[in-house]
Amino acid sequence: MIPPEKVKAIVEATLHSRPPGATHWSCRSMAKAVGVSPDTVNRIWRAHELQPHRVSTFKLSHDPRFVEKLSEVIGLYLNPPEHALVLCVDEKSQIQALDRTQPGLPIKKGRCGTMTHDYKRHGTAALFAALNLLEGTVVGQVHLRHRHQEFLKFLVRLDREFDKDLELHLILDNYGTHTHPKVKAWLAKHPRFKLHFIPTGSSWLNLIERWFAELTNKAIRRGSFSGVGDLVVAIHKFLEASNRDPTVYVWTASAEAIMEKIARCKAILQTEH
Q1: So what's the pLDDT on residue 218?
Q2: 113, 105 Cβ separation under 8 angstroms
Q3: Which of 84, 87, 253, 268 could form a disulfide with 130 if both were Cys (CB 3.0 to 4.6 A apart)?
Q4: What is the reported pLDDT for 269?
Q5: Which long-range contacts (CB under 8 A, 24 or more apart) does 20-26 make?
Q6: Residue 233 neighbours by CB under 8 Å, 6+ apart
Q7: Does position 135 have pLDDT exceeding 80, yes or no?
Q8: pLDDT category of residue 273 using cuts at 50, 70 and 90
Q9: What is the chain's alpha carbon radius of gyration, rounded to the nearest angstrom?
Q10: 110 compared with 130, residue with greater pLDDT
C-alpha cells in the first residue's frame, strides 16, 4: 500500500517538475526519483488521468475577422442554402512519392507487416480536391505544381462537374493561390461561385482536411512509389474507392460552443503563463 503522501508527491512532481535534462517524466524515471516501482507510478498516473508521455497540438487564430469567418462557415455547414452545393476545397501539396529502399515483409500471425525506415524520393504531386458536403463524394485533380494556374484548371473542372443551375459555395483557406488576380477575374465571370474563407490558422474548420487524413492513412503513408506516376495512380484509386462508398461528414459544433471553448483555452493559457 502506497501512503497517500507518496501518491500526492508523485502527482505533484508529474504536474510541476521535469526530470534533469528531459522534457517529461517516464514511468521509470519517476520511479527512480521517488523510490517506487514503475508499475506503481503507472497505476497512480492512470488513477489520476495523467499521461506525461503524450502531448496535444493546438493553435489559436489571430485573424481579426475570426468570429465573422467562423460564423459564416459554420452557418453553411449547419444550414446550407437551397438550390446550392457546399464544397470544401483545398490542395494537398507536396505529396511525396517515397520508395522504400528494400521490400518489406507481409503481415502474418504474430508479426506485423514491415517496411524500411529509409527511402528514396521520386518527386512530388499536388492534389486539388472538393468535398461535396451533401453526398460525401470528392472531386479530385492531381497536378505536378501548386499555382494559381492549376487552381484555375480545377475551378473549370468544378464548373463542368455540377449542374449549371446550382450555386457553388466553396469553403477554402487564405492561400495566395485562391486570391490571385487572375482567379478573381475568372470568378467575376462565373458568379455562381461563392467563396467563403476560413480564419487563418484554422484548417480544422475545413472538412476536406478530414478526407485528406483518410487519404494519407489509407493510401499514402505506408505506400511505396517508384515514381510520381505510381503515386498518382494510388491517389486516383483511393478517390474511386472513396466515391463508391462515400462518407458524409456532419458538422455538429455551433459557433457559440467553439467560441466558449476558445475562451476557456485562452483563460487557461493566461493562468498558466
Answers
A1: 95
A2: yes
A3: 87
A4: 78
A5: 24/52, 24/53, 25/52, 26/52, 26/53
A6: none
A7: yes
A8: low
A9: 24
A10: 130
User: Taking CA 223 as the corner, what is the angle to CA 221 and CA 225, rounded to the nearest 5 degrees?
Assistant: 125
Residues 6+ apart with CB under 8 A from 32: none
Query: Quick check: 115 and 224 in contact, CB under 8 A?
Result: yes
Q: Cα(228)–Cα(37) distance, rounded to whole angstroms? A: 51
Rounded-to-integer distance, Cα 273 and Cα 262, Å = 16
> Are the beta carbons of 175 and 91 closer than 8 angstroms?
yes
Tell me 263's DSSP state.
Answer: H
CA atoms within 13 A on the CB side of 17: 13
Q: Please answer whether residues 34 and 73 qualify as being in contact, where contact means their C-beta atoms are separated by less than 8 angstroms.
A: no
Output the nine-digit C-alpha cell for 199.
480564419
- On whether the CB atoms of residues 187 and 161 are closer than 8 A, the answer is no
111 DSSP assignment = B
Helices and strands, number each (H, E), in the chain: 9, 5
- Angle between the 27-34 and 38-47 helix axes, to the nearest 10 degrees? 110
pLDDT average, residue stretch 250-269: 88
- Virtual CA dihedral for 138, 83, 251, 256, nearest 10 degrees? 140
CA dist 227 and 247 (Å) reads 30
